[in-house]
Amino acid sequence: MKYEGNVIRYGDNVDTDVIIPARYLNTSDPKELAAHCMEDLDAGFAGRVQAGDILVAGQNFGCGSSREHAPIAIKASGVSLVIAASFARIFYRNAINIGLAIVECPEAAAAISDGDRVETDLDRGILHDLTTGAEFRTAPFPAFVQQIIENGGLTAAIAKGVIQ
Predict the structure, then answer these.
(1) For residue 164, is pLDDT > 80?
(2) Contact, 140 vs 147, CB < 8 A?
(3) Contacts by residues 148-154 (CB-CB < 8 Å, ≥ 24 positions apart)
């Protein structure tokens, strides 16, 4: 799994209420969720995020409620990958379930800056900051998790017969 994109950076403890505010939970439409993604933390996010961009954040990304709306909003906004120092466990699993690539790498999360260009080879566990030249290592996902993400999420992977 290879990704390349520009970085949008946030700090620690980005919770699901700022990823997608509760007032928008009356819809499950990914496009509508994307239009309001990060709205309470970064009002300009929806207007500047580009397909393939990479979110980088500090510790405990996705803390708060267990709503799947949060990773859906991020993925639907065009973000291809989230790199964080750590993730809230339920967010981590929800992201995989909906097919959003995520990577825990505290060193990368601390060193990569907003606006940097990052390229990754998650099959090999390599994160490369093209702006600074720094390279970071992370554990690759197991093959079955890669299949879930590559096929658009758990339900899609099961429907395609990739996973049983």
Answers:
(1) no
(2) no
(3) 148/96, 148/97, 148/99, 149/1, 149/96, 149/99, 149/100, 149/101, 150/1, 150/99, 151/99, 152/99, 153/96, 153/97, 153/98, 153/99, 154/96, 154/97, 154/98, 154/99
Q: Strands 135-137 and 126-129, how do they pair?
A: antiparallel
Length of the chain: 164
Euclidean distance between CA atoms 37 and 18, whole angstroms: 8
Check: CB of residue 67 under 8 Å from CB of residue 18.
no
| Angle ∠(47,118,150) on CA atoms, nearest 5 | 85
Residues 93, 79, 123: CA angle, nearest 5 degrees: 65
Cβ contact 67:25 at 8 Å: yes
pLDDT digits (tens, 9 = 90+) for 72-125: 999 999 999 999 999 999 999 999 999 999 999 999 999 999 999 999 999 999
- How many whole angstroms separate alpha carbon 52 and alpha carbon 160? 24
Q: pLDDT tens-digit profile of 40-64? A: 999 999 999 999 999 999 999 999 9
